[in-house]
Design brief:
The chain has 234 residues and is an alpha+beta fold. The protein is elongated. Helix 1 (66-75) crosses helix 2. The chain has helices spanning 66-75, 101-147, 153-170, 176-179, 182-197, 200-205, 210-230, and strands spanning 19-21, 41-43, 46-48, 58-62, 80-86, 91-100. The structure holds zinc ion. Zinc ion is lined by residues 29, 31-32, 34, 48-49, 51-52.
Length: 234
Amino acid sequence: MTAATPPPHDGPPPHDGPLVVQPLKRRHCAECRCGPLPFLVMEEGAPRCLDCADLGHLVFLPRGVTALTRRARAESGLSAVVVRFHRRRGRYERQGVLVEEAALARAEERCLADAEARRRRRERDARRRAAEDVRFTAAFAAEIRRLFPGCPATRAEAVAAHASVRGSGRVGRSAAGRALSEAAVASAVRAAVRHVDTPYDRLLMEGVPRHEARRRVRAAVDATLREWRTANGA
Ligand SMILES: [Zn+2]
């Protein structure tokens, strides 16, 4: 057999350590006769149980979590690949690995530490974004009150909070500065007045086309904005 010859049934290459098979049929250990065997090792054409094959101290780690498997095998002095024959596909397929229990525990700790580190970083990011949102909202509300001194403070804050959500989520933080332009602030206030202080939303619900609905409420919106631009705020 040359190096290029695949192992029987295209099993994994032999440098993965001992090859352990999950048998499809009821098999018993050729040495100690125990069985049926959940795992076996073929030695000289005969099945051996894990104990007889000196692998009985290893624990099974099913495939699925790649990082855990990689680390557990790296931590384990002795490990074995577990395969099962897939009849329809006509080949052996990897089911997991057998590793030392202590190695698995260390690997799990490392993966948990990674997950914990990621969680802490997410929390820091969330706190930073929240602080940015608070600053942005305050700046936006202040700009509204500067341009519309007659706008009630609660309304200014509501408009700013809404704009902040859009700023942080939809258009990104880099747009925050642009969003504070006079035109953008006026546009946000105008939209809020249209939705809250006029029947605009009801007209839309009744099926009035958007431009027609806007036309109908324009005078009311303009009146409120004029009032807010000049009046002394509440
Ligand atoms: Zn045995």
